[in-house]
């Protein structure tokens, strides 16, 4: 069967790859999906059911190199041999986010950043949904963008996009782009150069037009440096906790309110469902995006005050004998854990550790000496954490299972304390992913 669109190969068969395959088939491409690893059973079933050809455990290079277009999973690095060969032959390689963008006609709010992007994405979606808009949520969370475009199109899309997804975007131009902040993360994918990682985040604005909008944190050093390096075409709006902002948002410390000044009428918000300094930033970003889409002030206020916390992100689990347990398993880097420790009002028993991505823990030391009474190091290799904080706390122990971690933390904690799982590390030494780690934490707490 010939295809008017030609051959397309989708590399990787996770949510992003399968979504791209569904869209490609609908558009009339001859689709081939190739995954060097094993394909999850439900995705393999879905591809079979739709009559989409696929292979797993290998790459049929000869066939892939004949493709007119390649859609690459964000997990595949540029250094992969097959990608190098495709580049040598000057094949077009794009991300699933780019592919989805080229075939839709909605209004897009896209959010990236090292921390807070999932919260800002979910908050923005929550506000737009409460305003009665036809809005989809996806990208790096939930459904892939391409899948929504193919099967469940919307007038508005709120997308979380990672730097890996942005690396293969060229024409992707959201109406509103947001960079929450930029702190060292995933540097192994960027030649261990911070400026490469920053450049990757700023790709979110590369194709935006003059009538689009760019929202950024005016207190974030790396973002501010980026503003000097890259050409900013869209209207730029800052949010800040440290100084007043004319065309954006800031925090009025006297009135203890967020002030949105993004349009002619400023508005104040004093009731936030999500507590902590980082969530004040997240609420500002979501509030600004909503105002730019002409959402009523009342809807924004209500939505920011009734939003439920996300699973695995400073998620309250339960209280046992006056000890509060909080699941912050999504804190896979030092900066996320910094925010978590900073927002604690009680004495903390801290469960930390996992796969170290070249972490510098020293920035946490002042917070540890102020807030943390005991540390439980969870992981295969936690010597670095031990060495860093040994002198800051009276109690520190090493464990290799979540059950041991929760039981040790419970022993160390007294009534009125909080047990905080905020690992500052990736989870792959003992767990499938951060969700698995968070779920095991919650199961063990409930079993106490």
Architecture overview:
This protein has 448 residues and is α/β, with parallel strands linked by helices. Helix content is 35%, strand content 22%. Helix 1 (15-27) packs parallel to helix 7 (145-151) and helix 16 (402-412) crosses helix 17 (434-446). The model has no long low-confidence stretch (mean pLDDT 91). The chain is built from 17 helices and 20 strands. It is globular and about 70 Å long. The strands form 3 sheets. It has a 9-stranded mixed β-sheet. Strands 15-16-20-17-18-19 form a 6-stranded mixed β-sheet, sandwiched between helices. It has 3 domains: 7-90, 3-Layer(aba) Sandwich (Rossmann fold), CATH 3.40.50; 99-305, UDP-N-acetylmuramoyl-L-alanine:D-glutamate ligase (3-Layer(aba) Sandwich); 315-446, Alpha-Beta Complex (Protein-Tyrosine Phosphatase, Chain A), CATH 3.90.190.20. Cell wall formation. Catalyzes the addition of glutamate to the nucleotide precursor UDP-N-acetylmuramoyl-L-alanine (UMA). It is found in: Cytoplasm. Residues 312-425 form the Mur ligase C-terminal domain. GO terms for molecular function: ATP binding; UDP-N-acetylmuramoylalanine-D-glutamate ligase activity.
């Amino acid at each position: 069967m010939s295809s008017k669109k030609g051959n397309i190969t989708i590399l990787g068969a996770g949510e992003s790859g399968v979504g791209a395959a569904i869209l490609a088939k609908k558009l009339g491409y001859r689709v081939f999906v190739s995954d060097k690893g094993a394909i999850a059973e439900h995705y393999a079933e879905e591809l079979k059911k739709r009559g989409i050809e696929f292979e797993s455990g290998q790459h049929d290079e000869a066939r892939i190199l004949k493709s007119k277009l390649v859609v690459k999973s964000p997990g595949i690095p540029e250094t992969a041999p097959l990608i190098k060969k495709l580049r040598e032959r000057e094949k077009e390689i794009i991300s699933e986010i780019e592919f989805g963008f080229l075939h839709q006609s909605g209004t897009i709010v896209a959010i990236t950043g090292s921390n807070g992007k999932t919260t800002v994405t979910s908050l923005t979606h929550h506000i737009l949904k409460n305003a009665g808009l036809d809005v989809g949520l996806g990208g790096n969370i939930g459904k892939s963008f391409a899948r929504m475009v193919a099967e469940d199109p919307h007038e508005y899309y709120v997308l979380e996009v990672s730097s890996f997804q942005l690396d293969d975007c060229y024409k992707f131009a959201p109406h509103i782009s947001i960079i929450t902040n930029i702190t060292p993360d995933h540097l192994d994918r960027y030649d261990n150069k911070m400026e490469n990682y920053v450049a990757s985040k700023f790709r979110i604005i590369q194709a935006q037009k003059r009538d689009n909008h760019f929202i950024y944190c005016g207190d974030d050093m790396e973002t501010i440096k980026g503003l000097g390096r890259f050409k900013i075409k869209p209207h730029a709006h800052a949010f800040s906790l440290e100084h007043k902002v004319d065309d954006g948002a800031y925090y009025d410390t006297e009135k203890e309110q967020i002030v949105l000044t993004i349009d002619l009428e400023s508005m104040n918000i004093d009731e936030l469902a999500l507590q902590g300094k980082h969530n004040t930033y997240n609420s500002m970003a979501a509030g600004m995006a909503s105002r730019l889409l002409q959402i009523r002030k009342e809807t924004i206020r209500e939505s920011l005050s009734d939003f439920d916390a996300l699973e695995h992100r400073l998620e309250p689990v339960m209280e046992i004998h006056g000890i509060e347990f909080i699941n912050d398993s999504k804190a896979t880097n030092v900066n996320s854990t910094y925010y978590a420790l900073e927002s604690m009002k009680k004495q903390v028993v801290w469960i930390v550790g996992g796969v170290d991505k070249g972490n510098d823990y020293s920035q946490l030391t002042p917070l540890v000496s102020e807030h943390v009474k005991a540390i439980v190091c969870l992981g295969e290799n936690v010597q670095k954490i031990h060495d860093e904080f040994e002198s800051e706390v009276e109690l520190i122990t090493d464990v290799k299972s979540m059950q041991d971690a929760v039981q040790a933390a419970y022993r160390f904690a007294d009534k009125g304390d909080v047990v905080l799982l905020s690992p500052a590390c990736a989870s792959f030494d003992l767990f499938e992913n951060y969700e698995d780690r968070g779920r095991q934490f919650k199961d063990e707490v409930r079993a106490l």
